Amino acid sequence: QQQVKQSPQSLIVQKGGISIINCAYENTAFDYFPWYQQFPGKGPALLIAIRPDVSEKKEGRFTISFNKSAKQFSLHIMDSQPGDSATYFCAASRYGGAQKLVFGQGTRLTINP
Amino acid sequence: DAGVIQSPRHEVTEMGQEVTLRCKPISGHNSLFWYRQTMMRGLELLIYFNNNVPIDDSGMPEDRFSAKMPNASFSTLKIQPSEPRDSAVYFCASSPGTSKFFGPGTRLTVL
Q: Which of chain B's residues have a Cβ under 8 Å away from the Cβ of A32?
């Protein structure tokens, strides 16, 4: 019940295209869903997060779509740029206080110029 | 703010040696997390502390691993004795509440 499943494992998108990464969770107690971006040799950095009281959250070119009934959420990167090439991790936890963050397996995104 | 600070950034050691990884969390953050990242297993939570107290160490793989947080500004992760399968990148993260902020990691290689 602690698992977060992420797909695809790797993704290649042309510059200007839309990148879509999907995640599914099992634990219905989870109510905080962040996405992290990791560049080679760096630690994961918080990109955007959503709570289940909304179905979508947008920050610049990055959008999270959330489907509570399906227990799924996805990251959309609009107008993808070569600088977006990185590994992306979805995660889930309970909200508030010191909570364990469970990560998906990661998606290696490559944006071709 | 300097962010989460980890040292050393790289560590190469021989099997059987003791390894100590260090972390300085962001000032004011009351939770600290140790994660391990490998290609095979991804990002795994090893242990986390709240207000310097260990809350959950169920992710610590074996008794060879131990972690301490003697005060709010310092934590260590120790492996004794180290084994080649411990080779990984170890991340420390701190949190003021829900959002976690990761350090740059320590790349550990055990020969």
A: 98
